[in-house]
Amino acid sequence: MKAARFHQHGGPEVLRYEDAPEPKPNPGEVLVRVKACALNHLDIWVRQGIPAYQVPLPHIGGCDVAGVVERVGGEGTELKPGDRVFIAPGLSCWRCEFCLRGQDNLCVAYRILGAQVDGGLAEFVKVPALNVIPIPGALSFEQAAAFPLTAVTAWHMLFGLARLQPAEDVLVLAAGSGVGSMAVQMAKAAGARVITTVGSDDKVAKASGLGADVVLNHTRESIADGVKGAD
Ligand SMILES: [Zn+2]
User: Fold this and answer.
1) Do both 167 and 106 map to the same domain?
2) How far is the centre of ligand 1, averaged over its atoms, from the C-alpha of 102 (Å)?
3) Same domain, yes or no, for 101 and 182?
4) pLDDT computed for residue 54 by the predictor
5) What is the Å distance from ligand 1's center to 135 Cα?
6) Per the structure, how many domains does the chain have?
């Protein structure tokens, strides 16, 4: 298959579009034919070689993937070839005390697709069947690939750490960012009052459109004053 790989860490110039072995799905895994793979800042950090993400080289990045089921390894899943799917990028064992408690990010086996294991900047990617989710409704592959990792991060911050409850106020910095735009929508859907910030006036309407109740342009007003004055 073709893949965008790097054999050494560095800038964009280390990326090579080249042939790579097609992954072989083991029992419990699914081979997905990639239709869309979004870019996340994590792709840049991994390519540059930050110490937190040690990867064997050559490496295929790409954390946010949507595509079509190509092949299923073994039994035990209702997924079948041709299914339109996207991939939850957090890979874990699903059996340890942390996974069973819903804290899979604390699993000793926790990996992020495209960071510690080969990702979706390729024709095919293999992942555990438990991470493969049918694309809901009429979402395009590009739309389905746009949000998985930012959604994981935003969810963890809002509900795992902050334990946001309905009717609470929440401040989301940077509604124009990937995590910020997802957090605004999740917090609104959870029934919170959402205060958010943007860096230019043309983003105000977009932030409101995502569901923000109060939008502060931090280039023109103090965030602290704006939050205290919000009613
Ligand atoms: Zn686990």
Assistant:
1) no
2) 9
3) no
4) 86
5) 25
6) 2
Whether the Cβ atoms of residue 207 and residue 196 lie closer than 8 Å to each other: yes
Encoded tokens for 155: 């969810």
The predicted model gives 156-165 an average pLDDT of 95
45-80 per-position pLDDT tens digit: 999 999 988 899 999 999 999 999 999 988 778 899
Do 171 and 140 lie in a common domain? no
- Residues 3/123, Cβ–Cβ less than 8 Å: yes
Distance (angstroms) between ligand 1 centre and the Cα of 75 equals: 21
Residue 119 and residue 214 in one domain:
no
- Ligand 1 centre and the CA of 133: distance in Å? 19
- Tell me the CA–centroid distance for residue 198 and ligand 1, in Å: 37
pLDDT in tens, 103-133: 888 999 999 999 989 999 999 999 999 999 9
Task: Judge if 35 and 95 occupy the same domain.
Answer: yes
Q: Tally Cβ neighbours within 10 Å of residue 7.
A: 12
One domain for residues 110 and 133: yes
